[in-house]
């Protein structure tokens, strides 16, 4: 007679359970995070819907999506091991990929099409076309095309080289080999030839060539470990599973067939919905059953799968679109000035055409015989008009010819100069050793070249906490078990040195990371579970070792008798907890989908994993159902305190619950991350009820995620509390000093974190974000009306505090709040009700009155919503910095996104504009490189406007003295080369190398960064002053030679050469006056450009076929020529020099004061020179 108990019978159904108890994701975005982190979801496949930043609708939307059954119209049908039949109805994409943009045939038309998206290029193309018409030909036909052709060619060569590299990479990728099942045996096949429906076999450390559904693996339970670093940047191993129905099928020995019905290709790398019919059974497939292209198979000898998505339809390729492009603020402002210059150009052309019309009317009777405007052609027997088309058309032609002559008023060279300067700036940022992170061996990365100068105008920084301000290297510090606080105050030196280890086959097995232990707790853990305290501690550490998704890996050491266990997992929190359990004698040795092996105080025990509900951002907890060696079944649960206390049975152990809550508060107050651990023993009926519900939910074709979540909630109830853990996430080096420098620079730092409020506040104090002098305003509400009331009260309080301590300007805005700064602390629940409604305006008003804003328990979309809140209501520049996938939305929303190369993978880096290893590097990036880049680019834009306008106005003055005929004294080749050779190189070199202040000064006085906030280097006032100076200098250049040679017989080409040389020397000396740091390259380019101009003019005038042959040789022989050059330079630059001296002497700005201090640094090495800075004020917002 069978004497087994009902619970013992459960072990007979373990193989049947193994398929259903594998880690089915509770949602499309589930991730095993051991605490307060939140995972971001990509919903690009849901269609263009307005983003609700405040609501939690994102996840519910995914759940509702899973409730829809896949019908034939919305699905792809895949015949397993039958690619011919699979592709019979619809020819699915092949596995060949192409990341290159161009082919040999399409390169020229497509590249030109993309380049002509710049309106200025179309403008110059129209100019070149107009110049080809005989009636409008001012320059030679070839000469008029050269500037545009040069710019297009340089860009095309760059694009062609980049695309060649893509082609080469594509060829290597497509020709890689994989094992494909052909005629019951696996044969090598190129990746590009793989088809949907084929069965492929992947071996250890090989890359997956396409998206495939797992059929079987070397593991008897069907588990496979993959690394997704190529897909999402995360280096930790993830587990994938084959269904039991296909586990035992061996493709080489038996025919494998079936039908997979799956969703159409989409970008959601965390979701997959499908079902499979095999051997008459219909089973559901989820994200844990598919391995995506680009993943690597790790710690698994082999895995077999069927191709469901190939080539461009794989999720990796669909996500290969890159981050949204951003334009710099300076370039946006520049476009307004270009519009004005266009209007000014139109005005010049209108003046010339109107004056020409008047002149033609006045001299209409003389036009037939004027030698310089002969209308009649007498060379033939019949007199006819010679190049004259009537008064009306002549005016139109005059206008169009004016546009051609004055075309460089819009500086075409400015665009390519800006690109080259940005490349140069990026090179020096990348090479900066002060932004090199030695521990991670990572240099600064410049991933977006078009917003370098924006780094000099940042007003708001939105920072993640975990992994950005902190190291994200979790260390177990203390625990509350059974109401007793084991705070790790004393460390056993002997145990600390040796650590816990076990012996297996004569070899020592030791955890890779050593954890500090509390002697008292260690003693209880070793004493067994006979006592009440020992039983509590036993169950607590068993929960830490078992309730996770950690994979133990055996690592060899130089000592052959010693092996290390490296615990791999997706969450640093989980890793810290498992290492802590191992240190106290509960060492996780082995994990499969069906069981785990834990060495408990030297005794190896096997626990059957009967069920696992992974962590998700809705429940904020995870649970595992274990079959214990004593045949009992227990559910272990761990999670955030906010959700755990809602499922704990408060009628049990009331005193322990109260003590644990007090310990949790104390842990959070010192900045520790906390988790609550609980347990419940299941009866036979409870387990069977859960098992049947789990089976139904995990195989459901509709609403699977919702049903799984419901099943999890049903088992995670009436939990008996075991205790809580405290994990320390240490601040990164230099974070307090960095935040202090940034705030001194006038930058507002907001911290957005998923951690609980107490933890965030503690980190705020330790990072100097919060100080004891600050008044904290805390907004924690659970309804819209309570949020409204809290915000109204907070606004009144903040205004009172800042009004008492600050001064108010004429507009009523508070100028300073130095005595009583205010800190706003708000939680994610309140933001749910505030964002996306009328309360947003109140939150923004309150935040503007606060020195610091700290947002706790916020979801990824809420982070993006807070950035959007500021961007929509102010013109200030925003920067977001983070290290994890949950920061991607925030990084892409901000004007500038910075990714930290941290412990949570590289998704933030891949979505960012700039990337670095440590938060403290932000100080160097903004205060040094940001300041330099903004100053250089602002000056370069104004200088380009000036140098081109000077040249155009000289041509304009000449037209006024030549009967408005648009003839030009300056050689057409000199006109073309002016922007390309004569003046372009110096401005590029200065734009890359010039430094108004040295690094030490900028770091010592962070307030100097305020120059960017005040737009001191580029604004409308500077633009108009530059234009006035331009008019003066052009008049001097034109009229001094005109008056000097008024009565002479000099020809137009000779005086044209004089004007050319005068303009080139003048604009280069103008640049030289503004150079702050001279070096050999600056000298070479400025003086070399002047010499190059002389050489080019000599060569051009030495060519007999060109107009003005030998002109320079004739005029340069006279002393008057050199006297004119000297007079032009002195007269043109004296006003600028005088104004500059007076301005710097009587009303110097911060930068000029600091520059003077640098000059006197040698005299006072002790640093006695005091530098008084302007008060940094908030400029009015839009």
UniProtKB/TrEMBL annotation:
Residues 909-1148 form the P-type ATPase C-terminal domain. It is found in: Membrane. It is an enzyme of class 7 (translocase). Gene3D superfamilies: Calcium-transporting ATPase, cytoplasmic domain N, Calcium-transporting ATPase, cytoplasmic transduction domain A, HAD superfamily/HAD-like. PROSITE patterns: ATPASE_E1_E2. CDD domains: P-type_ATPase_APLT_Dnf-like (cd02073). The chain crosses the membrane at residues 119-136, 142-161, 336-360, 395-416, 945-970, 976-993, 1022-1046, 1058-1075, 1087-1113, 1119-1139. Pfam families: Cation_ATPase, PhoLip_ATPase_C, PhoLip_ATPase_N. This is Phospholipid-transporting ATPase.
